Every structure is written in C-alpha cells, then in structure tokens.
C-alpha cells in the first residue's frame, strides 16, 4: 500500500468559509463558525483520512489588508501556513467575486516559491446563478494559473467530496504523519479548546485580546470515569492576563465553569477542567520570520 500525507492550507478572505470547509472535511467541529469576521486566530489543524491519504488541514486566519502592527502579524501567520503547505486551496466567495482583498491574495500567491500546487475553490455557489459562476471561474483563471478549479458549497456539502478526493491524490507519497490513535484524540482536544475559546469570546466581547489562543495540553481519563483536562490560554502580553483573570479571578472562574459544564454535557461524564493563562508573544516573531524569507508585510504590501 502506498500511503500519502501532507499539509493543506486553506486561504482566503475573512468569512470565505475556511472554518466551515475544514469542519466538513474533517467531520468534527474544530473551528468556531460565526457571522463575525476574523474569528480564526490560530492555525487550527484538522486531520482527515481519504483512502490511503492523510490530509492535514491548516486553517489560517483571514488574509486581509493589514492596518495595524498586530493585523500584519496575523497576515504573516496566514501566509506562513500557506508557505509550509504541500497544497494550497484559495477559497473565494462566489457572490463577492474578485474583491480588492482577493487581488492582494493573488499577488501574494504569485510571490510564493514555485512548486506548490494551488487550487481554486469557489465557495457559496448556492448564492449565485450559473452564468455568474462561469464568468468568475474564467476571470480568476485568467489572473492566476490554478492547478484546478472547484465549485463548492462548504455549508451544503456540495463539491466537497470532489475536492477531498483530488487533494488526497495530490499529496506527496510518504508515511502518515499522525498515528491513527492520535487522530481520534486530536479533534476532541481541539473541540475542548474551542469550547473554552467560545466562552472567552462570549464573556469578554470587545475586550478579548486579539492574539489569544487556547490549547489542550493534557487529557487524562480517570479510573472513576471522569476526565481531567488541562488547558492553557495563551496571550501575547502580560497586560492581557489581567483581563482574562478578572477581579479576584472572577472572570476565569466563570469561563472555566461554563466551559466545564458544556464539556461535561458533550462527553456525557464528569470533567475536571484546569485553566492556566500564559504569555506567548510569537505572533509578532512569526511576522518577522516571514519577512526575512522575502515576503513583505509592511503597510499596503501584503
Ligand atoms: N451560503 C453559504 N454560506 C456559507 C457557505 N460556507 C460558509 N458559509 C457561511 O459563511 C460564514 C463564514 O464562514 P466561516 O467558515 O466562519 O469563514 P472563515 O473563512 O473561516 O472566516 P474567518 O475565521 O473569519 O477567517 C458563516 O456564516 C458560514 O455559515 C456556503 O457554502 N454557502
């Protein structure tokens, strides 16, 4: 048996449907899907198996015009995911067409080192008529030499199987990168992290620090049937820690309670949830690393 494995980066403007598509491909809720733009802050990965191929999805933060320093770091992180991937899928919204943001992404793609397969997936085809779709397909293919074009509806599941099959065939031959038993575990850890992140979002609203990520560091099944879950909330600055902890630790306590209750209900058993807040400032370092590689993220150039 020849196995294949590799990384697939989904890139596109905020709201293009990257999280929805990732979830559909992986078959588990790994990213929060909302109407709000720019919800995906972390490069969340999901793993799917298709025949003998292991598909590892890198769900990038939205690529958009950076205005502030922090936004630039996020754009850099998104391109970072793409630059490391074996296959890139550019997701475009059918009803919005070739926006200024899309043009900038196409310019960015043209600058990437050669050798990567880049496919186009026109999403939300449920929102347009066929002639519009055909015009858009032609327009985009005139602008960039895509390896293949897919017309999909991530939400309704249309065209998604075709895309997954194609991706499975395009990945390089090689051993699977995640052992099978870890894949089973991975979505659960992500789901648990996303639940806590969701509670943070609900509780903190506008105050929510931009570069916040949640990771499940440890998951222990206890003999009494309960689960002990340890998570770390990473923030970029020391000052953000206080926001999350709240006065006398009230905020984190409320978040922990809400997340624990949901997890417990989801898993159908008792959960002991331990949250820690740590500072990790590598978003900005990442931006600098990619600018060293020749990708320019200074104002107006992304
Ligand atoms: N009509 C329609 N809506 C879709 C489709 N796919 C996604 N959506 C909706 O588009 C919105 C954005 O989807 P997300 O998956 O959150 O988009 P995203 O690209 O991950 O967004 P960011 O995390 O902000 O980068 C959600 O309201 C989805 O329900 C589709 O095929 N058709």
Your description of this structure?
With 302 residues, the chain is of the alpha/beta class. It has two domains: 4-170, P-loop containing nucleotide triphosphate hydrolases (Rossmann fold, 3-Layer(aba) Sandwich); 180-286, K homology (KH) domain (GMP Synthetase, Chain A, domain 3, 2-Layer Sandwich). The protein has nine helices and nine strands. It has helices at residues 18-26, 69-84, 100-111, 130-143, 160-170, 180-204, 238-245, 250-267, 282-292; strands spanning 4-12, 44-50, 53-59, 87-93, 117-123, 148-151, 213-221, 227-235, 271-279. Strands 2-3-1-4-5-6 form a six-stranded mixed sheet, sandwiched between helices. It has a three-stranded mixed sheet with strand order 7-8-9. Strand 5, helix 4 and strand 6 form a beta-alpha-beta unit. It starts with a strand and ends in a 10-residue tail after the last helix. The model is unreliable at 28-42 and 288-302 (pLDDT under 50). It binds guanosine-5'-triphosphate (GTP). The site of guanosine-5'-triphosphate has 23 residues, from helix 1.
Compact description:
The protein is an alpha/beta fold.
Question: Tags for this entry?
Answer:
single chain; 302 residues; alpha/beta; Rossmann fold; GMP Synthetase, Chain A, domain 3; 2 domains; 6-stranded mixed sheet; disordered C terminus; binds guanosine-5'-triphosphate; GTP binding; RNA-binding; membrane; G_ERA_dom
